[in-house]
Design goal:
The chain is mainly alpha-helical. It contains 20 helices and no strands. It starts with a helix and ends with a helix.
């Protein structure tokens, strides 16, 4: 990897981390406050409708954002074509959801969902104005601007949500705050990007982009259905309250998982795309990514699993205790989420959209079948089936990466297995240490002490063994600090 691209990658990782963790930090604080002001059912209502909005968003973007990033040379006409495609389809789906909202509310037997969906769908039009600008900034590795934008938009949306929830807006505080955040996001992006659409549209450009984008659309559609069908099934088979407990567990688990995977996805895909013609350089980049991300992700998920109970009781109070086992199960599966993201980005960066679609379709079809089969045994059984899919996906993704760049399952296990084992060993040490303590500790004291013991165990061994993942972050921090001094 060239020095310039390496520096851009490091800078991108740092700024993407700042943006994602900053945004999630704000959202996390918001969620803490809202969990005390709102009821579990309020979160459940939003969770029930999310699948319809997410599927609409997939069709609106049409996989064209990924196609623009993957394409080596993009033109102004490419961008304007995608812009108008997004805008027209967003209007179409808002109209579609307006007329189907009654049927969706009847499906759940909850009349209030009709108005919620009709208002919330307006966000699709708002987001259509940000897709092209976001794609351009990602393609140019300008993650500083993206991070600043996301933090400010999230902060404004959070303030709006808290103020409205305090004033008894109920579930509408979640709906309106999302729209407000989206508007701020668009305004900031249009100020940060000099690109503006002109009255041009090219079917030839659309056709070329769809050569890659159409299969990406289908892949994203399958992924979206799989990711959100859990909420739909829980909401239908159980209750809004049960879905609220699941949603809260998912939200807390997604704070680290979503942050890390988003950072990996934002940076690794455009970087891998830039070096797609140099398989040797690509292999080096993928290996470093795998080692760096598993060094963080594995111990983080094990730690969250250990401190789950005091963490939930401290953050959300006894009202949300039913979410704890859901959260712990989700953490087991989330250990492999970012590894799978890196492997799928390899396929996308090489332009192998046909392979990507087949792989994603097979994995998600298997996942949906397992979910439908397991739900009869309860929510926890369904979550364990999702965990199983994460691990099956790793072997499938690793096999494909082995065929494409010579980095298969066994090589990945050798590179990342040490972090997996070390994370579990540090977890066992921490758990056993506190099992023999008979002193009554507050939830906060227990959390802080367990984090301290776990971090010391994991990091000290990593330093002694000079593990590459540890050394990578040490290098990133040093280079970033030196750059800031200049």
């Amino acid at each position: 990897m060239s020095k310039s691209l390496k520096q851009q990658t490091i800078s991108g990782m740092v700024w993407s981390s700042i943006g994602k963790f900053g945004t999630l930090g704000i959202t996390f604080i918001s969620n803490l406050v809202l969990a005390r002001l709102l009821m579990p059912s309020d979160f459940g209502y939003i969770g029930m409708l999310y699948i319809f909005l997410a599927i609409s968003q997939v069709f609106i973007s049409g996989g064209l954002g990924s196609a623009l990033i993957q394409k080596k040379e993009t033109t102004h006409i490419d961008y304007t074509t995608v812009f108008y495609w997004n805008l027209v389809f967003s209007v179409f789906f808002v109209v579609l959801l307006f007329f189907t909202a009654q049927s969706i509310a009847d499906f759940y037997k909850m009349p209030m969902l009709k108005d919620i969906l009709r208002v919330q769908s307006i966000g699709l039009i708002i987001s259509s104005f940000s897709i092209v600008q976001t794609t351009q900034l990602q393609k140019k590795l300008r993650f500083k601007e993206l991070s600043v934008r996301s933090i400010i938009a999230s902060f404004v949306g959070t303030i709006a949500a808290i103020v409205m929830a305090y004033n008894k807006f109920g579930v509408w505080s979640l709906v309106y705050s999302s729209l407000i955040s989206g508007v701020v996001n668009v305004i900031l992006l249009w100020n940060m990007s000099r690109w503006r659409p002109t009255l041009e549209f090219s079917f030839q450009s659309l056709k070329k982009l769809f050569g890659f984008g159409s299969l990406m659309l289908l892949s994203a559609l399958v992924e979206t259905i799989y990711t959100n069908i859990q909420g739909l099934i829980i909401g239908k088979a159980f209750s809004a309250k049960s879905l609220g407990f699941y949603t809260q567990a998912r939200r807390l688990e997604e704070v680290p998982t979503s942050a890390l995977s988003s950072i990996v996805n934002q940076v690794s895909f455009p970087v891998f795309s830039k070096i797609q013609n140099n398989k040797e350089l690509l292999l080096i980049g993928v290996r470093k990514n795998i080692k760096a991300i598993t060094f963080l992700n594995f111990p983080l998920m094990v730690l969250l699993l250990i401190i789950a109970r005091p963490l939930f009781l401290f953050l959300y109070t006894q009202k949300w205790e039913a979410s704890i086992p859901y959260f712990q199960i989700l953490c087991v599966g989330a250990m492999l989420y970012t590894v799978n993201t890196i492997n799928t980005n390899v396929i996308k960066s090489l332009g192998k959209s046909n392979i990507y679609f087949v792989v994603q379709f097979f994995k998600r079809l298997l996942g949906i079948m397992l979910i439908i089969f397991s739900i009869r045994y309860g929510i926890e059984a369904m979550l364990w089936s999702i965990v199983a899919v994460y691990y099956i996906s790793f072997f499938i993704n690793g096999y494909v990466s082995g065929k494409l760049i010579g980095y298969g399952v066994w090589r990945q296990v050798k590179d990342a297995g040490i972090y997996y084992l070390l994370a579990i060993i540090a977890g066992v040490i921490t758990y056993c240490a506190f099992s023999f303590i008979n002193i009554e500790l507050s939830n906060l004291a227990q959390i802080l002490l367990q984090i301290t013991v776990y971090a010391f165990s994991y990091l000290s061994v990593s330093y002694i063994l000079k593990l590459e993942g540890f050394m990578t972050y040490q290098e990133v921090v040093v280079e970033f600090l030196m750059k800031r001094k200049k």
